[in-house]
Write a structure and sequence with these properties.
This protein is 29% helix and 22% strand. By secondary structure, the chain is of the alpha+beta class. The structure holds 2-oxoglutaric acid.
Length: 283
């Protein structure tokens, strides 16, 4: 990968792409889809991905092969037209969306995450980064901007549309991995406004309004996502989504959203986890 292709400057990337750098064209496709530094434009993003493939980017070729339908075209409108959630619980507000992602996209996300998983961390308001804690014994891959490809940018856009929340408010996507016995023990995703250490972050980015999970595989036993209030235990099929509101309609936190990723009793579990804020992160 060239230096230009790791840049987040659309002008530098455009110049490098013009000079024949396929990786730069692929990066520019991501920024264009996400609307970072340029107006968001998915048609242009796909054209840039096509250009990246022509310039020899293997990743771009693979992404196009993954996204293309039987006729060889990529149906962006279908991607952006997210299915409506169905209600599983009114309070806390929990919803399911069956068939949210195609199985091949789930496999793509697992393959990318496999190379990146590390011990999962808990957010530390003192440092603004993650730290190890016994509540999380599983592993996770975090996809920051440098790791987001066009496929994941599309997944993030589809998640935001399904949740009815702004794309720039999405935190970096995580893919969680659990071996037998590993867990993300009982916890809440909202940041406690009563904890002074969270104040600056809450002012800058807003509350974690919603959590969106996509089940990337289903060939395991146990491993349900469980909610304390109401006793709901849910396991989707591969590609199904589960989402819930961490806040009430007035914006205050919903304590009933305490939940856990229970340990699988057989096989491995892979799930994409997306926390959604109200405002854009600083990048
Ligand atoms: O893996 C799961 O089922 C739950 C994940 C979770 O609790 C989270 O991402 O906040």
């Amino acid at each position: 990968m060239t230096k230009a292709s790791t840049s987040t400057d659309p002008s530098a990337l455009a110049e490098a792409a013009e000079a024949g750098d396929g990786a730069a064209a692929a990066r520019l496709a991501v920024l264009t889809g996400m609307g970072l530094g340029v107006a968001p434009d998915w048609d242009r993003a796909m054209a840039l991905l096509g250009r990246a493939a022509k310039l020899g980017s293997e990743s771009a070729k693979d992404q196009i092969a993954l996204l293309a339908g039987a006729d060889g075209g990529i149906d962006i409108a279908a991607w952006l037209n997210a299915p409506r959630p169905r209600v599983l619980s009114q309070g806390p507000a929990i919803f399911a969306i069956d068939g949210f992602l195609p199985p091949a996209v789930c496999d793509w996300m697992i393959a990318r995450a496999e190379a990146l998983v590390e011990p999962a961390l808990v957010y530390d308001h003192e440092t603004g980064t993650g730290r190890r804690e016994s509540v999380r014994t599983n592993t996770a891959a975090q996809f920051d901007l440098g790791r987001i490809d066009v496929v994941l940018a599309l997944v993030r856009e589809r998640i935001a549309r399904a949740a009815g929340l702004p794309v720039p408010g999405l935190e970096w996507t995580q893919v969680l991995h659990y071996d037998v016995g590993q867990t993300f023990d009982w916890h809440v995703d909202w940041l406690d406004p009563a904890t002074p250490g969270y104040a600056a972050d809450l002012t800058a980015r807003g509350q974690r309004i919603a959590t969106f999970l996509v089940f990337l595989n289903d060939d395991f036993e146990g491993g349900e996502t469980a909610f304390e209030a109401g006793g709901l235990r849910h396991r989707g099929r591969k590609g199904d989504a589960l989402l819930w509101a961490n806040t009430l309609p007035d914006g205050s936190i919903d304590p009933r959203t305490r939940h856990a990723g229970l340990p699988p009793t057989k096989g491995e579990k892979w799930v994409l986890s997306q926390w959604l804020r109200g405002r854009a992160p600083r990048i």
